Structures are given as C-alpha cells and as structure tokens.
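Reviewer has doubts. Consider these tokens.
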Amino acid sequence: MKRVWQFTGLLIGASLFSPSNALAHVIGITIDSFDTPQEVGELGASQVAENGGIILGGFRDLSGNASINNSVSSGSGLMTWDGDDSPFTVDTTGLGGLDLTQDGEATDFEVEILLSDLSGMQLTLNVFDMNSNVSTLSRVFNSAILTPTTELFSFTTFTGTADFTNIGAIQLRVAGPPEIDVQIGSIETFGPHSQGPLPVPESSSSLALLSGAMLLVASRKIRRR
C-alpha cells in the first residue's frame, strides 16, 4: 500500500494568512480616463462634458492636433481640466481648490502612455492654484515607446509656486516631431499609503483557516496497489 498525501488545501489556507497576501493602500484621483470621445473641431478648440468615463471637474477642453476615443491620439495637443468654461481660456479657479496630495498621501501624477511611435515626445504638466500661481514639469522621451508604460511625475520636481493642496486647473500638453503619433490611456494621481498593509479581518481569517482545513481533508488521497 502506497500513500500519497496532497497538501493543496493546506497551502491555500496558509496563503490566505501570509503577510505578502495583504494589499497596500493606494491613494489617487483620476484626472481623466479618456473614455469620453472628443474632437477639436473647426474652431481649433472644444469642450466636452463627462459621459461614460471619468473627467475631473466634469469637463475637458481640447485644442491642437488631437482627438480622443478611449485614448488620446495626438501629434501635438493641449488638454485642460478647469470645470465648465470656454475652451479658449484657463479658469484657474475651475476645480474649486482641489487637494491633489489627498492630505499629503498622493505624491505623483501617473500618466499611462500607450504609444509614441517616434522619439522626441514631450509631455508637459501645468498646475494652477486658486491664486493663479502655476507650477510646471516637462519631460522629453528620447526613445519611441511601442509597449504601454506608466510614467510618474513627482509633485516635488515641479518648478513654480502653485499650492498642490489648493488647485483650480490642470493641463497636459503633448508635443513632438511633426509626424509623431502619441496615444495616452489615462492620467491620475498616485501615492502609496504610509500606514502599510491592510489588516485581515478576524472573521475572515477564521473562515479561511476552516476552509483550508476542509480542503486538506478533501484532497488527501490513499492510492492502493
């Protein structure tokens, strides 16, 4: 008689208790998911209201050589988030004093870049506070980006005097060589929470232990020869 012990259930139960299974807190604000389509139009600039996606402040302004349909497709374009106003001006009070830092927890802008088919793409972020102070950060990419990537723009590396806890408008400018094709998937803020991993509720732990033990018994087999 040969006995074969299978420990699948025990491993499942143990993994639920492992500290590595706990998820870290993440603080963030979605600036734009780019799910609401938009064209610049004949006037060279347009505004669109949030419809089927997330747009900070409910409205997005777009100008330049760009269009939006689930992502930003642009050779050169400017997007502005400043509430409901003219797409030809920036209302530096349009977002009403937004705290981009989320009480000090968020630390970066996170831009999802889906494509930049040529080198030389430049992304510029402008933030305006409620007192019309502005801070800016530009970054040039010296290589093409052919697979999706996420780029972080730290608040601490901006130059200027804007108060990131009292923001009224945000802009993202895309530029590059005349023939460049750029696609941006989303823009949001990001920051790991300082309090560390999420706790596992006691009731869930007890249930996990019981489930693991039951699976262990169920999976134990005796093979006879």
